[in-house]
Amino acid sequence: MTEKDCSISVITLVKLAKEKIMTKNFIKICLLLSLVGQTYAKREIVKISNLNIATNKDGGTTLGKLSWTDFNVDFGGNIISANNQGEPLNGSFSINDQKFNAKLSFATYKTELSVDNPLITLDHLHLKDAQVNFDKDEMSFETPSLKIGTNNTTVSAKSLKGSCDPKGDPSTDIDIVCLSNGDLKAQQAQLINDTINILTNSFKAYITPATIAIDASKNVFSSNGADTLVAKLKADCSNGIRTRFNIEDFISGCLKESHIALDGFSQIKEVPKLQLENKELANLQDIKYVKVDINENRFFLLSRIRVLFLVNLKVSGEIEHLPEDEILKLKISKAYIAGIPAKTLTLSILQTFLEEDSIQIKGDTIYIAL
Question: Interior CA angle at 241 toward 2 and 297, to 5°?
């Protein structure tokens, strides 16, 4: 189906809707057009109330269900509105080999998606009672619950609010727009994969074409049965993303330039402590803060830590992304404690705090599995 064909189909459906024929199903198809995000799905205004989407993969097929209560759309002056007196309108769809098939009452809709469309790449998506408002000046959305997953990684959020600036572009590609100009806030946000579980509170993200920045508090890092609380987390990276999210583009931007600050460490569950001559040398409470700066694949780490007494810890070296192995490789070239060269002792301290299933230290090199 070409862009011209789709435009003709939409015009025809508008005429049918004006004649009060199959109005409800037209509304459903308009919603699916906006969700699918093809080039012909241009709009001036889209407002959706209580939108619910749930998908999962069965083999190579994505199966989905959606519902909503109110729907308003303005396609170039053709204004369509519908509600079912507060009762939900329902639909279902499937995606296989980029082919999108939807069933809405007695109506069906078929098209082909681009290979990077989020509906294809996600293993599962659960969106609850979302309020959506798109126009040429702002894309805003609010949901009490969002959960998405792909490649054994799950990201979820509670009380999520987003506001993104499309810069006058009428596209429905919310992910592309928000990854260029967007503000996101969540009561809680969580990332889980096979090796780590990160839970953040009061999560905020600020995105511009130049920078991706996050700010969060009461962050819990869980791995290998150990839980670490970090009171404050701030980070920003160069924005290497140009269209849809791609982990390699994101990492490339961060390796070009980034700044990370963690403050206020404490243990929730006990982890092994570094010992020296039967004396405790350091534990998490002894870390006052950690700051990491990266510039053109060179990293500089500064920390203040109690090693028998409070001292400054400085580490520098090179950082490299190995995409085939999904690994970050950090080779330490210099390490100082209290201004004194001490690479061996520094590596011992880092090994105590860092080494786990996803992080391995071999010689003067740290390997971090992504």
Answer: 150
Determine the Cα–Cα distance for residues 73 and 66; give it in Å rounded to an integer: 17
Distance between CA atoms of 135 and 148, rounded to whole angstroms? Answer: 25
pTM of the model: 0.78
- Grouping H, G, I as helix, E, B as strand and the rest as coil, residue 271 is coil
Distance separating alpha carbons of residues 143 and 43, to the nearest angstrom: 22
Q: Identify which of 216, 130, 211 has the alpha carbon closest to the alpha carbon of residue 174.
A: 130
Please say whether the beta carbons of 120 and 108 come within 8 A.
Answer: no
In angstroms, the CA 193 to CA 203 distance is: 19
Q: Within the chain, what is the greatest distance between any pair of CA atoms?
A: 88
Q: Which residue from 265, 190, 257 is spatially nearest to 233, judged by alpha carbons?
A: 265
Contacts of 78 (CB under 8 A, 6+ apart): 14
Q: Among residues 187, 66, 156, 169, which one has the least CA distance to residue 119?
A: 66
Alpha helices in the chain (DSSP H): 3-18, 23-36, 118-121, 174-178, 247-256, 343-354
Q: To which H or E segment does residue 160 belong?
A: strand 153-164
Q: What is the pLDDT of residue 202?
A: 95
Across the chain, which has 370 residues, the per-10-residue mean pLDDT values are 38 39 45 47 73 87 88 77 78 90 79 82 88 87 92 90 86 84 94 86 95 94 80 95 87 95 76 40 69 95 82 92 90 88 80 70 86
In the prediction, which pLDDT does 333 show? 93
